Amino acid sequence: MYVDRVLSGMRPTGGLHLGHYHGVLKNWTQLQHEYECLFFVADWHALTTHYDNPGSIEDSTWEMVIDWLAAGVDPSRATLFIQSQIIEHAELHLLLSMMTPLGWLERMPTYKDQQEKLSEKDLSTYGFLGYPLLQSADILIYRANRVPVGEDQVPHIEFSREIARRFNHLYGREPGYEDKAKAAMKRLGGKRERLYSELRTRYQEQGDAEALESARAVLVATQNLSLGDKERLYGYLEGGGRMILTEPQALLTAASKMPGLDGQKMSKSYHNTITLREAPDQVVKKIRTMPTDPARMRRTDPGSPDKCPVWQLHQVYSGEGQKAWVRAGCISAGIGCLDCKQPVIDAILAELAPIQERARGFGEDPDRVRSIIADGCEKARDLARETMRDVREALGLAR
Ligand code: TRP
Ligand code: SF4
């Protein structure tokens, strides 16, 4: 089969919380069973907004990696690395910047939004404007075609796709492309050549996406082609020229928004989090002191779950039976709020216990964590270098 490659990055924000776990990490731990996965610490991205205070980035990086591992991201299945250790990202970013229209960056919705949101910072910088392009380089350098991101990041993935298309269009048309593609097809040989050609026609004439997938599968399974010929044939399927860079797709996470302690989305900046390494007695205390429906001043006052942030946590942690018990008990004042909170407390403690145990293990063994990252960086670097060879060649920079 045509192998999908998944890539995602996270800014180093230090220790993670349940919002990260439910919104991102659980998804990563599932993806690692289905796809080839690369996950990285986007430390350069952190500098685009925190250039005035870089001190915390390194510590935050290691804390975050420990939490990834503790949450079940498995280094034997996924490649874990740090962006700044693969300097090829910077080279690709530079080269792509030559052909990136300024308007494309200026009209990114995140550009104005973030500047307004972080108005205490001066973000009228070159690096901040270019940050979606750095993200494109992160993705394109691994030829990743699936990028799990939240909704806010979708425009960046679309932008990356446009950049890849522009690059391929500008530099993928070598002289005599058509003839070279046909010669490469011959080299596929007999049955494969016929199959490829049939599937290509089916895709081009009928837009049959399955035919496209199957044709790519033929190429994946072919051993005796040079890399250049393979790329020509990938590109030839879709018309254009050589496909030097792969167009990525966003892989939208089923928006599991984790509510925080106050009913808003869980986020460090709202001070409403439970961290993955929160001490159990703190978890108990935080949930017990959580606000509830303000109409329930006394135990005997009936309440409405829809006005209560605890109810939102039941949506995450409780089954139908328990939710019915909450509803009935709340509306009739049959249960107290502490009774209602107890199953949530139990569920969170049960969820965190194995995570915290693993985090302790990794925390006590920094060498192991460092060696996991060193291995991941090495693998990532090999992949990045392969792409950069082709990119340099396309730009006349091969030495
Ligand atoms: N921009 C992303 C964020 O702020 C992080 C990120 C950087 C990323 N490079 C990436 C995500 C590449 C996916 C793919 O959350
Ligand atoms: Fe909220 Fe539960 Fe109290 Fe109702 S009983 S107000 S849902 S905490």
Polypeptide structure, described:
The protein is mainly alpha-helical. The radius of gyration is 25 Å and the shape is elongated. The chain folds into 3 domains: 5-172 and 247-257 and 366-394, HUPs (Rossmann fold, 3-Layer(aba) Sandwich), CATH 3.40.50; 190-237, no CATH class; 277-363, Tyrosyl-Transfer RNA Synthetase (Orthogonal Bundle). It has helices at 18-34, 43-50, 57-70, 88-97, 102-106, 109-117, 126-129, 131-140, 154-171, 177-188, 190-206, 209-220, 227-237, 280-288, 309-317, 320-331, 337-363, 366-394; strands spanning 5-10, 36-41, 78-82, 146-149, 249-252. Helix content is 58%, strand content 6%. It has a 3-stranded parallel β-sheet with strand order 1-2-3. It has 18 helices and 5 strands. Strand 1 (5-10), helix 1 (18-34) and strand 2 (36-41) form a beta-alpha-beta unit. The mean pLDDT is 93. It binds tryptophan (TRP) and iron/sulfur cluster (SF4). Tryptophan binds at residues 7-9, 11, 42, 45, 135, 138-139, 147, 149, 153.
List how many beta strands DSSP finds: 5
Full CATH superfamily name of the largest domain: HUPs
Main sheet attributes: strand count, strand direction, barrel closure = 3 strands, parallel
Radius of gyration computed on alpha carbons:
25 Å
Mean pLDDT: 93
Sequence of secondary-structure elements = EHEHHEHHHHHEHHHHHEHHHHH
Indicate how many domains the architecture comprises.
3
Total count of helical runs of at least 4 residues: 18
- Lateral arrangement of strands in the main beta sheet: 1-2-3
